[in-house]
Amino acid sequence: MIINFIIFFAVLSLLIFFHELGHFLAAKAFGIYVKRFSIGMPPRVIGFQWGETDYCIGALPIGGFVMMAGQEDVPLSDEEREKEYGQVPEERWFKNKNVLQRICVLLAGPSMNLVLAVLLYAIVGLVGSMVPEWEVEARVGDIEKNAPVLSTPLFLYDDKKDAPVDDTEVAVGWQIGDRIVKVDGREISNMTDLAVEAVLGGESQSHAIILERTDTTGATTRYVSYVAPKILDDTRHARFGVGPYETALVHEIVKDSPGESAGFQKGDIIQDVDGKPVTLSGFIRYVEETAEGATITVTIQRDGTYMDIPAMPRTTGKIRGVHIGKLDGKGTLGVQSVSPEVADSTGLKAGDIILEVNGASLSAEDLSQLEKSSPGTPLALKVKRPAKLFGLVRDEQVFDAAITIDPVRAIGVVLQPRSVLQRVPPSRIVQHSIYQSYLAVERTIMTIVGLFNRTVSPKELGGPLMIFSVTTQAAQAGLDWLIKITAFISINLFVLNLLPLPVLDGGQVVMNAVEAIRGKPVNEKFLERLQQAGIFLLIALMLFVTYNDIERWIVGWLS
Questions:
Q1: Alpha carbons 407 and 272: distance in angstroms, whole number
Q2: Which residues partner with 247 through β-bridges?
Q3: Residue 183 in this model has a pLDDT that exceeds 90
């Protein structure tokens, strides 16, 4: 937990430092008197004086500021202003500089957040990282039963005309393995881009999507699909109903299994089963549901060559809908995850501790062996649900639950998803990092627009707790993920600070632009009231997003 807080404050400090550094460097360049450069809010903890400026760290790590003569986020009285800047020549005051210089100082802060994002995306691109294949390729994975893409008509696509050949419908529905080339005329690089288009466009927007389908001979055909996402099941967002494609890569062969007898080898890539393209999860489901004694034909790719391997799955046991294993380093047996359906029928929740199975205390290894060797066997569980907050939120509970080991089929191959190395050549790194930043800016703006047209719920907004959660989860996934999420948050700050709201940099830029148009400064009393209103709005927004954070935390805590 301490490491998580260190990561959170390190990310926050980096973002604030670059933002305030932009204001500071621009102010210095125009000869503006800078009294203090602070990371963190008062009271001052530590720092040093260099020239006329105090460089320091504040006790509250929730922001930062550059204290300039004649530039006040919070209005000062004449006495306070005289005390702070009375000795400073008036020509060095921010408010006495020309409008263009003031606007440059105000824009420099957000601009440095954009610069930081470009640098971070460049670092990740140059160093490279192992990422899931769906991060670098937009291929259709498992398709939900009621997905809108299943019934959408397909039209042959003419690359030269960038349009359908004609209005003749040649096929219906997307298929697993289809590659998505363009959405609304723009190329997309991964499935995240497709999901974002659905969420931000909402149910009312139909999209023109170019698909590429490869047949068994290797020939490719491109289609145009016009489809609108929709809200599926109990989700709050519009979706196309497709998941990312995960290649079924053979990682290990179980000894004396049907897979070993059939000739599977480590590194084989499973393409089809009985002529149907499958993802990793789809292949597992297909094999599990195969009739007992039936033979399946698996098409695999090995060293660039395709071959068919017949195999007869063997019946084994599997506890479906709930994953039971070690909860901690001590080997405590418990519920690691549970599907909503099983949770409703059994009362089990993630984090529950399994005390006994059929009256005996078992280890995770013992349960795994029992599961494989006893298909169809009912299990009586004695479960302990630990207290929360010393019993104030929830008392400790001990209860009984019943589950069954389902008989399923398996061929004895251990699968894993395929990861690919994503690295950008130095010659393309500038273009890459700028484009990634552009995409992040576009998504942020579309999210803000979505709040106004109600395709994005205000409940999705988050504050410090959400940033803490996102950064710590990214850090657990790897340094490259932490750097990318930091870049995205920096882009968010860039855009949000340019909004024309009082107190924010964008609001002050607007006021200075109004002054330039009018040819004289805006009334100080009006500015003071506007700043006060801006502070009120900012506090209200912070309270709202913090409320969202706390609500999410409480729901997760009580679940």
A1: 24
A2: none
A3: yes
